Each structure stands twice: as C-alpha cells, then as structure tokens.
Amino acid sequence: MQLPDMARQRDECRGVFASGGFHVVGGYPTEAQGQFSQSAETFDVAAWRWGAVEEGRLEEAACPRTCVVGGDGRVYMCRQAGQAVVVEEGGGAWRRVADLPREVRVALQMVAWEGGFMVLGSGTQCGAQVAYILDIESGEGEGMKWRKVELQRAYSGHVQAGCCFHI
Predict the structure, then answer these.
(1) Alpha-carbon span 129 to 162, nearest angstrom
(2) 65 and 109 in contact (C-beta within 8 Å)?
(3) Is the pLDDT of residue 166 over 60?
C-alpha cells in the first residue's frame, strides 16, 4: 500500500520511527539542490495520514543524514559544530549530549548501534573513515563514553550512506 504524498518534496531527507510515528526530517525540493529545509512531517500510521508540517525542526543548513533513534527511543543527530545532540521530549529544542571525537568531524554518517549509536566520518576532507560508538546509557555530557571501532583499511573509504537493523 502506498503512503499519501507529503506536503513538501524532500530529496535527501531522513526518516525515523520514534514516539509512535514515522518522522521525515529535512530534505529539499529537486529544484533547490542542497538547500536543506528545517522542517519535518510525521506520518500517523493509525490514522494513515501526514500531520502538519513542523517548521524549525532542524538547525539552518543542517543535513539530516545523521538523524537516528537511539536505544533509548530518543532522536539524536550530529551538529556541524562537532556535537552529538538529542531532541528534547515533546519535540522541543536540540540539546548537546557529547562532543564528537576530533577524528569524526567531516562527511558524517550515524546509525543506531548496541543501545547507543555509531558515528562514521573523517577528520579532514578525503581523509580515511573512522568510527566511534557512543554508549548513551553511560550518562550525558562528560559521563558519556566514546569507543573507537577499528576499521580494516579496505573499508576506510568515503561512506555515502549508512543504515543498521537488528534481526
């Protein structure tokens, strides 16, 4: 069964299931390449319809590809300022939870992983990819612990997209 159309076109958007809904964040119309929207739309599965467009859900020019639902059911993403952030309960503002390791500041991808999330990226443009896992159950701020994942050199190239699902 096909979903009804959203109110806006959303190339390069990100979709996540959280709080009983399917949330689609960011993206842009085809004719506005790379001009990411700050809005989001939520699909109510029970009612089989999209809710109203929510403006201001992302920071200006934020690419939504790092939005992910953590093991605690909350939505996280990486800021361009080198921070991992979580959206406040009820869809409020984004709040800093940890600084990203310096080795993962460019070309970021993020996936849910082992009760937390994994961040992949590099320290410089065209640099080798590295990965870190953040244990979100270890507390917030200074209490959160990053664990580096050793990648084989054959798998250290640019990551265009990432996903993870549990069987």
Answers:
(1) 13
(2) yes
(3) no
What pLDDT score does 4 carry?
93
Is the whole-model pTM more than 0.90?
no
pLDDT digits (tens, 9 = 90+) for 15-39: 888 888 898 988 888 898 878 888 9
Buried b / exposed e along 70-98 (16+ C-beta atoms within 10 A): beeebbbbbbeeeebbbbeeeeeebeebb
Yes or no: say if 110 and 117 are a contact pair by the CB < 8 Å rule: yes
Taking the C-alpha atoms of residue 111 and residue 163, their distance in angstroms, rounded to an integer, is 6
The Cα–Cα gap between 76 and 80 comes to 13
Helices (H), 4-106: none
Dist. CA 20–CA 128, nearest whole Å: 37
Sign of CA dihedral 100, 122, 148, 64: positive
